[in-house]
Design brief:
Helix content: under 10%
Strand order of the largest sheet: 6-10-9-8-7
Order of helices and strands: EEEEEEEEEEEEEEEEEEEHEEEH
Number of helices: 2
Shape: globular
Structural class: mainly beta
Largest sheet: 5 strands, mixed
Low-confidence stretches: none
Strand content: 35-45%
Bound molecules: beta-D-mannopyranose
Number of strands: 22
């Protein structure tokens, strides 16, 4: 099939988890769920009650994941998952053994909503950590044997950070959402630069919470942005408030390649919203929370990993061609999303 939208940066991934869109699918947006969801269910290993909001990458012939494991004492920590196909996962029973810069063991007080992003020859793990309140934690690994903790990029409070998969203009770029320490009732996405993954600055606003009701409370980066010929494709989460609490849906936007603080297109519609039993029912009902994608540059296929109802991990699919067309056709960028420079 001819692709007018091409995925850049990512290589071939012929064994990407995949199913075609079901015939007769009546959803507005071209994102469809894996028919065998969820891919990680409850109590996957002793001591872990639920795994959700987790991130996977291709590694060797298969896949590795950094998983949010809610332990049986209710505290979240990070676990490593291994899979031959991105669908069936084996989870290490011990938490990821981080060390500090001196090689001494380091254990975060808690760790949740991990992202796992490869930049050059290093895999970076980002999560929400305890730093006198909720803040972003970071670690790096090259071999998934040694995991070295890095400096926390920001002061508290911030609970959601997503790294770009390559440097732009020689600088690392990190999306984040400054917040309060609890279940933040506000939040916009910002981007910050670093020459060295230690010092972060030149902060820029990217997107405000939306005009559309499904994302009117707060938004936060989801998967690492995917470089395409049409801009950085960002899957993010948007939150609405109802009489029964928050609802988390998945949205999409395209950011300018060389200056990703500029939003080119932003879809006014959600791409995926809770509707399956595993999304509507669980520890926290009505949550679809994207944390990673896999993509195959040859076919344009994209697999999205998302946490469902703070209880399990699920997969959904789209293609670069279809999702970019949908985002563009339904774009409604807020004026503050395109403002260049500092305020
Ligand atoms: C957010 C985070 C996520 C969680 C979501 C919905 O604030 O805690 O981990 O999925 O709430 O409960």
């Amino acid at each position: 099939m001819d692709q007018t939208v091409r995925i850049l940066g990512a290589g071939s991934l012929p064994n990407i988890p995949w199913e075609d869109r079901p015939v007769g699918d009546s959803h507005d947006a071209p994102v469809w769920r894996f028919s065998r969801n969820p891919v990680i269910g409850r109590n996957p290993v002793p001591g872990v009650a639920r795994v959700f909001n987790s991130a996977a990458v291709p590694y060797g012939d298969g896949y590795l994941a950094v998983l949010r494991g809610e332990q049986v004492d209710g505290v979240p920590h990070l676990y490593l998952g291994r899979s031959p196909d991105g669908i069936h996962w084996r989870i290490d029973p011990e938490r990821i053994p981080f060390t500090d810069g001196q090689g001494r063991p380091f254990a975060p007080g808690y760790a949740y909503d991990p992202r796992l992003v490869r930049v050059e020859d290093t895999y970076y793990i980002l999560w929400c950590t305890d730093f006198y309140g909720a803040a972003i934690g970071m670690a790096a690994t090259k071999d998934f044997q040694t995991f070295t903790r890095l400096e926390n990029p920001f002061i508290p409070f911030n609970r959601n950070a997503v790294l770009f998969p390559r440097r732009i203009g020689g600088l690392y770029k990190l999306l984040s959402r400054p917040s309060d320490s609890g279940h933040t009732p506000f939040g916009d996405i910002f981007v910050s630069d670093s020459p060295d993954m230690v010092f972060w600055g030149r902060h820029r606003h990217v997107m405000s919470r939306g005009v559309a009701w499904w994302e009117s409370v707060k938004i936060g980066g989801g998967a690492a942005p995917i470089e395409t010929t049409e801009g950085w494709l960002l899957f993010y989460h948007g939150v609405s408030s109802t009489c029964n609490g928050f609802v988390y849906s998945i949205g999409g936007a395209l950011l300018e390649i060389d200056e990703p603080s500029r939003v080119l297109y932003r879809c006014r519609n959600f791409l995926l919203t809770p509707e399956e039993p595993y999304e509507e029912r669980g520890f926290v009902p009505n949550v679809c929370f994207p944390c990673a994608t896999l993509e195959d540059a040859d076919t344009g296929r994209i697999a999205i990993y998302y946490g469902a109802a703070d209880t399990c991990v699920a997969l959904a699919f789209t293609t670069a061609e279809q999702i970019v067309a949908y985002i563009k056709a339904h774009s409604e960028v807020c004026p503050s999303d395109t403002e260049p420079g500092l305020r």
